[in-house]
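Page 42, continued from yesterday. The earlier attempt failed because a stray header line got pasted into the input along with the sequence. Redoing it now with the clean sequence only.
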Amino acid sequence: MRKWLRFNKYKSAKQQASIQQAAPESGNQEAAIGPLLADNLAELRSRFLHAPDLVIRSFLHAQSGRTAALAYLEGMTDKNAVNNNVLRPLMFPTDGGDQAPDLETQPNVQVNVGSVREIYQWNHLEHALLHGRSVLMLDGMAAAQMYDTQGWPQRGLEDPQLEASLKGAHQGFIETLGQNIAMIRRYIPNRELVIKEMMVGKRAPVKCSIVYLRDIANPELVGEMENRLQQVNVDCILNTGELAEYIEDNPYSPFPQFILTERPDGAASQILQGRICVVLDRSPSVLIGPASIVSFFQNIDDYSTRWPVASFIRLLRCAGFFIAAFLPAIYIALISFNHEVIPLYLILSIGEYRGRVPFSPLVEAMIMEITLEMLREAGVRLPTPIGQTVGIVGGIVIGQAAVQAGLVSNVMVVVVASTAIASFILPNYDLASAIRLVRFPIMLLSSMFGIVGIVVGAMALLGHIISLESLGTPYGSPFAPIRYADWKDTIMRLPLWKMQTRPKGVLPLDEQRMATKPPEGGSS
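This time it went through. Structure tokens are written below.
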């Protein structure tokens, strides 16, 4: 937390003072909506001079007999809601003998939309139009009425692409804030679920919601998250990846310090543990914190399978982590410095193929690793059928051709392929990307110092992970600091009925999960 505060003191006191002075001045200079409809429409057209999608529908208000105008941005609103729920009740008198209510005294009775609010400032009117709402202005009324008629294009619920699940829910977040909040609430139908809304960004502000359980989440962590979001001073935030980079504790670390997920069930599980979720509008993923290194090895399927199977898979992920980080470096160290630890028949086989390679082990490994990374990126950027073909065919063809041409040895191809497979085991894409980057400096150390360089690199990596913080909490928890109670859901997953407490690393108010051991003779 202290590191993050030091990092964000890049602005001088003069800059901070100018920002603070600009805010009240802009609020004072903002004009209010006038009572004359003609002047208001002229002002509206001047503000949206280069917006051809602005629609202004002038009509005669049936109840008051005065001229009115409804403004909205085409494509951002639901036309059926505008025509049937707003325009029709306002343009045509209501049936029955009772006199219809007046628009100024009872505005909510006139239209059939969920939310109706009065606005008095032009900046509020601009904000409403730009976010898909329709605005009604009446002649002689020094205010406007805002209707929730949003209807921009949006996609349906789909299975998350980066977080496929075998037994979990097959639906992911989309780019609409309201839909994402609704999916989280479906998993946590509890009145203690708190949703705090705020705006992030200056030129194009985007709405975000802080979601947490009031009786579980630590209020100090909630306040710290709000403070960091309020200090984000940029034009616009387009996705949660950008937001995470602005509010993380250690901006120079390759390791992710917040969990980014597209799964509503995964987000609900983290909230129930006492973590805080930030849902950003226009983004198909949510941000969750505080995080620890262990949380990136966990997957929603771990809790849907038998605990021995889940524990075995966790061990595979840990092994994949170390293989992806150190296997190329171990190959370089053994070939360059520590030949004596290789069995005799194996070193003769390696020497037979290494004798035709004109490069050092480091250059050989670099050639294959960079080629692999290029193939991986090409497979991601291309369309799915073509990308899979490029990844498979390209890897086979290039690897075989490189061995036959004598550029690399066949053992190096096996090492690089094993490294790639190990990195694919990791369930979190951000952690796998960090390991891809860490692998190269460890390879350099092994080429200079052999096994000693690998040990030094491993110690530096371990020290770096221990020194990290996420939202002011230890990143290495529950191993640094040691919290034995949390070890039940780390490298191995014990039965669910044994995990009776929440992770202490997130500092929950209520540590008890209310889980109980099954009765005697019951299933474990």
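Notes: Residues 307-336 form the longest helix (30 residues).
Reminder to self: strip header lines before submitting.
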